[in-house]
């Protein structure tokens, strides 16, 4: 095991704040790689080499001299049965001998923290690479199987894709320098999943089990508790890795509809109706359809008609209840419905015309949501 130069310097700097002695950190070959006395970096130290080879503390004093060594103590740092480094304190033996266990334990703690941090980072990179391979159109089967084995991820189990998007106005995200820290703390606890995340959202490939749906709800609740406003789109499961790109598209479609409707926070593609059709439609045809129905009507009047139409729909065609909801007289409500018919040529009280208007209002809203449609007001 070899220690990174930056980590070695960090360890020496931290120990220096505790002990008022010269501190040296050696690699397993007895070479000083970090020291409070920078002029000694790169020097060979025979006592440190012996400590590494024997896995025992080696003392240097007037009776025990070693090439390149000054009086002091040199103790090996052992991680998982292997010498990772040797840490030394310069000084008279009587003054520094009691520090042997202290500096060894401190160095072990720093090294273990670094090893764990590096392992987490490497896993994150591997998970990101695996997900990119899984959802990409040109999968590298051998690379997928290699990364899956590294991550102990079951390539034969059924999985679904979940894509999440965080609202930029989330209070905790706004006050956090690195927003991705918030979701990752919870994402890594989701059983049977791999994930990748950035400042705006995340993508998970989750093993499909009887408990996985509840686990995703728990994840959403945990994120919400942290103040993170997030919605998820979820695909159908598949055990065929070749279908994962299609499942990713399903999840993106479900997420798109979730963001558009905002009715629920987790949308499964299997629950979509209009959501299966609208996001996949060509925007040019949507615009053509909306323009056909609404003609030259400006946005303000379309929205006014939509409020009338929505109330009429919500109360299943009851003019009385719709009028009460809008705080208007029922005769005014009838006039508003007539106004829709006059402006569009489609009468909401006629079943066939109603379906055209319903579709037009939905497409109008969706086009505005995607910033693909903006009618100019009348002059």
UniProtKB/TrEMBL annotation:
CdaR GGDEF-like domain boundaries = 140-256
Output the InterPro entries linked to this UniProt entry: CdaR-like_regulators, CdaR_GGDEF, Diacid_rec, PucR_C-HTH_dom, PucR_C-HTH_sf
The Putative sugar diacid recognition domain covers 3-134
Check the record and name the Pfam families matching this protein: Diacid_rec, GGDEF_2, HTH_30
Q: Where is the PucR C-terminal helix-turn-helix domain?
A: 307-362
- Which residue ranges run through the membrane? none
Name the PANTHER family for this protein. Answer: CARBOHYDRATE DIACID REGULATOR
Family named by the database record: Belongs to the CdaR family.
Give the protein name, as stated in the record: Sugar diacid recognition
Q: What species was this sequence derived from? A: Bifidobacterium pseudolongum subsp. pseudolongum
């Amino acid at each position: 095991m070899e220690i990174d130069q930056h980590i070695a310097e960090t360890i020496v700097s931290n120990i220096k704040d505790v002990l008022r002695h010269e501190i040296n950190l050696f690699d397993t070959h007895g070479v000083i790689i970090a020291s409070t006395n920078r002029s000694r970096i790169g020097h060979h130290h025979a006592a440190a080499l012996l400590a590494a080879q024997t896995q025992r503390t080696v003392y240097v004093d007037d009776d025990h001299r070693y090439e390149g060594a000054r009086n002091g103590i040199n103790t090996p740092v052992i991680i998982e049965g292997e010498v990772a480094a040797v840490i030394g304190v310069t000084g008279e033996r009587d003054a520094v001998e009691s520090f042997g266990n202290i500096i060894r334990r401190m160095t072990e703690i720093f090294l273990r923290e670094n090893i764990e941090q590096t392992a987490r980072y490497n896993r994150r990179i591997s998970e990101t690479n695996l997900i990119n391979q899984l959802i990409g159109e040109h999968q590298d089967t051998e690379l997928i199987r290699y990364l899956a084995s590294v991550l102990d991820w079951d390539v034969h189990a059924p999985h679904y894709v979940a894509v999440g998007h965080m609202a930029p106005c989330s209070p905790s995200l706004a006050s956090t320098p690195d927003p991705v820290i918030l979701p990752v703390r919870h994402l890594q606890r989701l059983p049977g999943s791999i994930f990748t995340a950035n400042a705006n959202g995340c993508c998970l490939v989750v093993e499909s089990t009887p408990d996985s749906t509840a686990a995703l709800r728990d994840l959403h609740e945990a994120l919400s508790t942290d103040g993170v406003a997030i919605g998820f789109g979820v695909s159908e499961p598949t055990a065929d890795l070749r279908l994962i790109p299609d499942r990713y598209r399903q999840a993106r479609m479900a997420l798109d509809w979730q963001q558009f409707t905002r009715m629920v926070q987790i949308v499964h593609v299997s629950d979509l109706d209009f959501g299966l059709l609208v996001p996949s439609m060509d925007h040019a045809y949507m615009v053509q359809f909306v323009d056909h129905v609404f003609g030259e009507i400006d946005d303000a009047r379309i929205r006014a008609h939509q409020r009338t139409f929505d109330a009429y729909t919500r109360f299943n065609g009851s003019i009385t209840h719709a009028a009460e909801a809008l705080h208007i007289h029922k005769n005014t409500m009838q006039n508003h419905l007539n106004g829709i018919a006059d402006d569009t040529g489609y009468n909401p009280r006629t079943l066939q015309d109603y379906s055209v208007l319903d579709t037009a209002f939905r497409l109008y809203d969706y086009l505005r949501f995607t910033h693909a449609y903006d009618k100019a007001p009348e002059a």
